[in-house]
Specification:
alpha/beta, single chain, 7 helices, 226 residues
Length: 226
C-alpha cells in the first residue's frame, strides 16, 4: 500500500511515521508513506496557498490551484483508489471504514487547515470526507496520522501477531474484554480464575461475555441500545 499525505504543515507528521509499528511497516516494505508539502505548489514565490473567502468572513481558505497541482501530479504517476479529505464535517471514522481502506492500494489524504478548502476541491477531487470526532483541531495532520495508523496496523504482516488486530475493540462490533498479565496475584488483587484454567473454549466464552457486558455498559449504541 502507498499513502500520500498532502499538508501545509508536513513537519507535524514526521514523528508518527518514524517510530514503532508504523516505522517497522515501512521498513518491511508493507507500506509507503509520502508526505507532500503543499507549499511546494504555491501560487507565488511567497509560498501562498490560502486566500480570503469570497463574500467576506473571518479566516483564510486553502486555494484550489495548489491542491489541484499536487493531486494531479500524483495521479499522473499512478491510479488512486481513494482521495480522502480530513474535515470535522466528514463521516466519522469507524473500524469498518478502516478495514475497507486497508484493502486499497493507493490512497491520498488531504489535510485541511485554516477555514478549510475551496469547495471546488471537495466537489471535483475528493472521494471520501473523514472526521475523527465531533471537535475541531488546528489542522488535519493529526487526523491523517490517526487514519493512517488505523489502516497500516491491520495490513497483513505489520503486527507480529496478526490475530492481535482481529481481537481489537470494534472489529466484531464489541469493545475488547478485560486483559491481565503476571503476576496472577498482586497486593490481594486476583486475576480471574478462568484465565488460569487452561480451558481455551471456556476462556473464549468468558471473554465474549465480558466484551458484551463492557459494550453494554460503556457503548450501548454499538448494540443498538440507547
Amino acid at each position: 500500500m502507498r499513502i500520500d499525505i498532502i499538508s501545509c504543515q508536513p513537519e507535524l507528521l514526521t514523528s508518527p511515521f518514524s517510530h514503532s509499528i508504523l516505522k517497522r511497516a515501512q521498513q518491511k516494505n508493507l507500506v509507503e508513506v509520502h508526505v507532500h508539502d503543499l507549499r511546494q505548489f504555491a501560487i507565488n514565490k511567497h509560498g501562498q496557498i490560502d486566500d480570503y473567502a469570497f463574500g467576506g468572513g473571518a479566516g483564510m481558505v486553502m486555494m484550489i490551484e495548489p491542491i489541484d497541482k499536487c493531486i494531479s501530479g500524483l495521479k499522473a504517476e499512478r491510479d488512486y483508489d481513494a482521495i480522502i479529505y480530513m474535515t470535522p464535517d466528514g463521516k466519522t471514522l469507524n473500524q469498518n471504514m478502516v478495514n475497507q481502506f486497508s484493502l486499497l492500494r493507493n490512497i491520498i489524504i488531504l489535510c485541511g487547515h485554516y477555514k478549510g478548502v475551496d469547495e471546488r476541491v471537495r466537489q471535483h477531487f475528493i472521494t471520501h470526507e473523514i472526521s475523527i470526532g465531533d471537535y475541531v483541531l488546528s489542522g488535519g495532520e493529526l487526523g491523517a496520522a490517526v487514519l493512517a495508523d488505523a489502516i497500516i496496523r491491520i495490513i497483513p504482516g505489520v503486527l507480529n501477531d496478526e490475530s492481535s488486530a482481529l481481537t481489537d475493540s470494534f472489529q466484531d462490533g464489541l469493545l475488547a474484554p478485560p486483559v491481565y498479565t503476571r503476576p496472577a496475584e498482586y497486593k490481594g488483587m486476583q486475576v480471574p480464575e478462568i484465565l488460569l484454567s487452561g480451558d481455551n473454549p471456556k476462556i473464549e466464552q468468558w471473554r465474549f461475555e465480558q466484551a458484551v457486558a463492557r459494550t453494554k455498559q460503556r457503548r450501548p449504541d454499538l448494540l443498538g441500545e440507547q
